[in-house]
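Give me the fold.
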Amino acid sequence: MRPRTVALLTLTAALMCPLPSSGQGQVPTKPGSAPTPVAEEATAYHVGRGDVLKVVSYQHDEISGQFPVDEDGNITFPLLDKVHVAGLTTTEIASKLVAALEKDYYVDVQVQVDVSQYQSQAVTIVGEVQRPGTFYLKGPTTLNQLLAEVGGFKSSAGPKVELRRSEVENGASVQKVYTFTTENLAAGKDNDFLLKAGDIIAVEAKQLYFITGEVARPGQYQLEHGMTLVQAITQAGGLGKFASQSVEVHRESAGEKKILDYDLSRIRRGKDPDPQIQPSDVIIIKRRFF
């Protein structure tokens, strides 16, 4: 978790260039590469509607307190009434308050602004993670950082993670889908993909098929994308010593159970297509008769 942005400003020239706090002023980079310094504007948290700001002035208690950001993006601040803060960093908000306060009320006032409650930039993660739900971004956050926050993947997680995002193209809102693999994410790859408010992340469950009868290793197996009947048999170690070429696939679709019959010899000779296996299929390799 990144440290919270703190802004302490006066009108003196020395404090117009604050030192960066630990972890700020950098963008996420791939392992082994040097971090690239960037302006605070590019990495700092931008306040939004629903957030709560903590404002402290050590010289003037009367302007210190907790200030929620309303639906119009404003806080109601002592002496100043409505102050628009949505979309600004805490540094920018502190500067704005100082300028307004020193214009009519104080001389050389100091104001510290912090976000005490993050409630504006929600992302949702569902599916096969330890703690699915809605979470609020507290600054630049990568997909890997969110996965760490929710406890990582369950053992039932499948190979694919989808992230859905609303973006604006040519003035119109469009839905984009970004796809990742659990293998890469668990290995710390794709660790520079930054999340945005409104993102929905779905971690799919493993899709399984079952195989029994005259096969080397009967049991349940993970179904890979586009897997065919011959590939499924191969994954289970191939046919057993007494296997026939006759195969049944038991399948349930829309509440209806079906039994599909295939001839492996015809499939191998190219006479029949090699059918794709579907989740929860039960493949039965029959025993040949002598």
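The chain has three domains: 7-117, 122-205, 208-287.
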